[in-house]
């Protein structure tokens, strides 16, 4: 028996339409019994969706709350911001707002984009380790030709440098680009393919390659990204006044510093990608609200929460996110509601990606301050009981 009756309906001429979405919902109702009533109720025009989705059936609606205001003293993000967070977790928006209030009372959060790269990392295959080593030297000597070939595919992407590793008879090469206001994974894939083909034509020996040898660690956390930066490396830092912390959060900075030592040890023991309370919460909620690639949360949430108890009793805190992958142009950022959330932050369009990255890092720091204090004071569980779904 053929499987045609089970094939998802498609229209080769106009597949992104209200009519075709209904055809697929009707098909799924016949196949599964699911009504998809609310999924099929939406206000956006499906004509804006080509390039973002296939087999469109409707919209999954998530509630969006706003946290803030948050005062940021950045190089790109300066002033007060109201931060949209898309989440279904009760207490989350309230917790981030609480952290933002104490940040504001302490003079705001300082943010810095340190560096930014996006990678594609092909693997080149040779007859033996010696040729693989010598190939690496050839790459360095021919960098200008490689750069011209890569950059011929894009007006935005710029090839900055190569990183190389030899394993067995392989040479792994990590191509590092800057990508403007786009996240750039597809951009650098296309550019690196052009570079590899140029290499294959000009290298004097045989040259076989696989476009991704998995050292770019796309959509995966890796310690390599902690060291060498993927996306944007962003730091958010603040000095928490001991008197303000005692008054607003009912927490002594000495106790918070001690708790941070314990948390660092626990994260080290667990092999965690982040040693702070919960970077992924704020990042995921902001990503969903603003049309980021949600899978990039796995890379972006990794980082380091650093602390230092100062001689006067104040507490220095900083969040370093070494692989924050964000965009303010292209991808899902131009979809109607996602664009509105970016516009709420003054971050839609070209020239805004560093600003948005600073806002993300500042938001993470606010959430970490709030949750750390809630754990210390014993309000963590009671807040979920009061505001969340733990009312049973």
TrEMBL record:
InterPro entries: HMG_CoA_Rdtase, HMG_CoA_Rdtase_cat_sf, HMG_CoA_Rdtase_eu_arc, HMG_CoA_Rdtase_NAD(P)-bd_sf, HMG_CoA_Rdtase_sub-bd_dom_sf. Gene3D superfamilies: 3-hydroxy-3-methylglutaryl-coenzyme A Reductase, Chain A, domain 2, Hydroxymethylglutaryl-CoA reductase, class I/II, NAD/NADP-binding domain. SUPFAM superfamilies: NAD-binding domain of HMG-CoA reductase, Substrate-binding domain of HMG-CoA reductase. CDD domains: HMG-CoA_reductase_classI. Keywords: NADP, Oxidoreductase. It comes from the Bacteria. Residues 8-22 have a biased composition (Basic and acidic residues). Pfam families: HMG-CoA_red. Residues 1-22 are annotated as: Disordered. Its EC number is 1.1.1.34. Belongs to the HMG-CoA reductase family. This is hydroxymethylglutaryl-CoA reductase (NADPH). It comes from Alteromonas aquimaris.
